[in-house]
């Protein structure tokens, strides 16, 4: 780890930053509470950027970077932070985007989830849990926190497939976790998942559902008694179900609806809003447990009616986004002007 980068990361953390952007001949940029802020620090020269990149990559990674012009990697600064980095070229010069990740997964309550939500998820021991949200909404952190929770409370064999590995899980008294990184331990999510199912897992974490083959294999794994935890880039719980179906050709969708209705156990959709003081971010979320009425609507091609079930089914564990956001506003944890209008709508 180069001293200039270490100093830069330490300074960014003092301001509560979670993203850091570095490029040649331009002052470093950090993101705090969804806002881009320029740091009062000198720019890196092209030579310094080259030395920095060399220090971050091993020989195989340097070859891959040279061939592709970009690469994902991750590394740990002991006792401080873990960093997920994307190194790339822009206008024929080097640039680095860093995501600053806590060294260990935070607890679900620390993230902002109620005990009710945690209990709902803990009751699920097979099938699929889908964690969704836009880019930079904390999906990976929530998934890691849930994996850490079940690993601490049960005796499980857990396999994670990630690109790249973000949180490094500790040793547990009863559970064992094997973490596989795309490009190093397995070529892609689909291959990694197929291989994982032959390794006697109780739980499989998929860092991202990117393609039809991975989604289909996840559903089959969930049907055969495994617990599959996966993340997906969608903006709400109902859209997530539609996206899972529409990724398949039209002639397969009826079968996928049936598989989803029986295998999907819970959809947790989340967003991070600027805090009232704009010094950090606050979690807002919605949760859709797979009630019998929801399963029936999926099979009957009436997914648009699930919004009504979420609004009326709060006694059954459904929590709409609007309920959570209104509570955050009432507690003055966020400002009204920072909340997108759609998060307050009763759908």
Give the secondary structure arrangement, pairings included.
Blueprint: H1 3-14, E1 19-23, E2 26-32, E3 35-38, H2 46-56, H3 59-68, E4 70-77, E5 81-90, E6 93-101, H4 108-111, H5 115-122, E7 127-132, H6 139-153, E8 157-162, E9 176-181, H7 189-196, E10 203-206, H8 212-223, E11 227-232, H9 237-246, H10 253-263, E12 264-274, E13 281-289, H11 292-299, H12 306-312, H13 321-330
Parallel strand pairs: 7-11, 7-12, 8-9, 8-10, 10-11
Antiparallel strand pairs: 1-2, 1-6, 2-3, 4-5, 5-6, 12-13
**N to C succession of SSEs:** HEEEHHEEEHHEHEEHEHEHHEEHHH
Mean pLDDT across residues: 94
Poorly predicted regions: none
Rg (C-alpha, Å):
21 Å
Most strands sheet: 7 strands, mixed
Compute the number of structural domains: 2
State the CATH superfamily name of the largest domain. P-loop containing nucleotide triphosphate hydrolases
CATH structural class of the largest domain:
Alpha Beta
The number of E-state strands comes to 13
Q: How would you briefly describe this protein structure?
A:
The protein is α/β, with parallel strands linked by helices. The chain has helices spanning 3-14, 46-56, 59-68, 108-111, 115-122, 139-153, 189-196, 212-223, 237-246, 253-263, 292-299, 306-312, 321-330, and strands spanning 19-23, 26-32, 35-38, 70-77, 81-90, 93-101, 127-132, 157-162, 176-181, 203-206, 227-232, 264-274, 281-289. The strands form two sheets. A seven-stranded mixed β-sheet has the order 9-8-10-11-7-12-13, with helices on both faces. It has a six-stranded antiparallel β-sheet with strand order 3-2-1-6-5-4.
